[in-house]
Amino acid sequence: MPCSNPLAWLGRQRARGMAGIVLLGIALPPVGVALRPFAGEAIFLLLVLAFLRADLSALKRNLTRPGLVLAATGWSMFAVPALASAALLGLGVETRAPELFAALMLQALASPVMSAPAFAALMGLDATLTLAVLILSSALVPFTAPGFAAALGLGVQLSPLALGAKLGLILAGSAFVALLLRRWVSPRQIERRRDEIDGLNIAILYIFVAALTSNFAEQTIAAPLRVAGLTALAFGIYFVLVALTVLLFRRAGTERAFAIAVASSQRNMGLMLAATGGALPELVWLYFAVAQFPIYLAPLMLGPVLRRLVPAGAGARA
């Protein structure tokens, strides 16, 4: 029964729970407005949970034998922005729709979302591999993003120092808290509480998605066709990036390929907003909001594919 252990019940919903918090965020704008100041704390807690449940020996192997992690990071942080810029420049988007060009390039330049390991875990994938790619990508983005932005003339200022300091504090702080918790909670207890941890992930993710969607209904009423077009574009880009990543890394195994795809397709656009001080055109803000939908609906959309391609319980070690 849901009432006997609400977190465990919510954790067992996984994909439906993720879809539900998106709908709840849109349906209750005042709640999103109230939760907006706590979005940063929510991301921090999600990373604490990712480090807490990570297989530390597997994480160490990924970072000390970093062949696959380096390849995945190179794809996400160099190849994806290069391909995006080539495609957009080839189509003339930078002159026809400069604000859309800025939005799409900032998305391509971003590192994986801090909640990517949580999403990987909710989909039953190797969250440890996703976490390793997140750590290395986060170390690179203070250098890659400003360089690409300057070369492309996006008209935004991305401070390497601000990016590096923000990411460093979040990653180091969350890892430290998780290591402290591990002194009192054994790996066996963590595994036994898997459903509760998944439920807590979903509950914390609601804080973030509610904050982002707090004015979505209002914007949809004001400009429904623009919102619909940007939403369709966001879903299209998401699925293309997932498919390309899985195809590129299929030799590493299906589960690993999808774990890398989670990191590569779920970009930290919130970090780009923070790094620019929010000084971005309205259309960029709107696109960043709708681009969250495929991220939060990913467990529901990709679930049937993963159930067919990834053996049951493959991600249990995450």
Structure description:
This protein has 318 residues and is mainly alpha-helical. It has a single domain, classed as Na+/H+ antiporter like fold (Up-down Bundle). Helix content is 79%, strand content 0%. The protein is built from 19 helices and no strands. Helix 2 packs antiparallel against helix 19, helix 5 crosses helix 10 and helix 6 packs parallel to helix 10. The longest helix is centred in the middle third of the chain and has 26 residues. The model has no long low-confidence stretch (mean pLDDT 84).
SSE order and pairing:
Layout: H1 6-13, H2 15-27, H3 29-35, H4 39-53, H5 56-64, H6 67-90, H7 93-96, H8 98-109, H9 116-122, H10 127-152, H11 160-182, H12 187-192, H13 194-212, H14 216-222, H15 224-248, H16 254-265, H17 269-275, H18 282-290, H19 292-309
